[in-house]
Design a protein that fits this description.
The chain is built from ten helices and eleven strands. It has two domains: about 90 residues, Leucine Dehydrogenase, chain A, domain 1 (Rossmann fold, 3-Layer(aba) Sandwich); about 130 residues, Rossmann fold, CATH 3.40.50. The chain is an alpha/beta fold and about 300 residues long. Helix content is about 40%, strand content about 15%. Helix 1 runs parallel beside helix 10 and helix 6 crosses helix 10. The termini are far apart. Strand 2, helix 2 and strand 3 form a beta-alpha-beta unit.
Length: about 300
Amino acid sequence: MSASIIDGKMLSQKVRDSVTEDVKRWVEKGNRKPKLQVILVGENPASRAYVGAKTKACIDVGIDSDTLMLPDTISEQELTEVIQSFNEDDNTDGILVQLPIPNHITPLSVIEAIDHRKDVDGFHPMNVGRMSVGQPSFRPCTPAGIIEMLRHYSIQTKGKHAVVVGASNIVGTPMGIILSRENTTGKATTTICHKFTKDLTKHTIDADILIVAVGQPGLISGQMVKEGVVVIDVGITRIADHTTEKGYKLTGDCDFDSVSEKASWITPVPGGVGPMTVAMLMKNTLLAAKKSIYPPK
């Protein structure tokens, strides 16, 4: 068999079109445009590219955005004070600090400094905790995008065995939580694997749904999956390729050729999960502006 492609590029455009219409209606009712404040610390080229994609998406859907670029010499206290100023700004709906940040700054301290009502990345412990117990919350954009993909393609999670490879706070752990919840998007039996997991194949070959997010090209081969598996490849790594104009190509955590021969559905890299992550950020920013998750008391 040959896998059907889960087209994240197409689906992300549908989500963005929906957000565009919702923003338009919101503004027509006399509200100001939603605003996303991005904070970029240092000169990481990949981070600059990601921020560029996010701000372009904001323009496309009608959301105002501003990027504050800070030197990588900034102290943790100075950065948290900058964040606090945006917390107190009524014209700022969403705050996003682009990760990674310099090593002398603790990521969790920065994430906790963001008002959870403006945490459109969905990383704040308040949002993670509320998500864990089934309360309304901002969900991390990549897991939320994956759920949107599964829903759009009518891929059932109820009663399925979902295996997540990678236990990060950004993708793996929240993905496991969402899939295991007793609600409409979950009801799966979940296994989370990571770098300390012994005999990875023992787990991946049993997966009905396999989600891989470790950033290790070619980690999962066709021999490690069973026939009919649904594969969501979150990993994206640049590897040198002098046959291309840019001198590199983007590749995922799965060996696409061998895995797609056995899978029923698979996401490509690029063009799979990445565009959905940005689309869900737009959706979260609109929800923050509307105060849909945290209504004023």
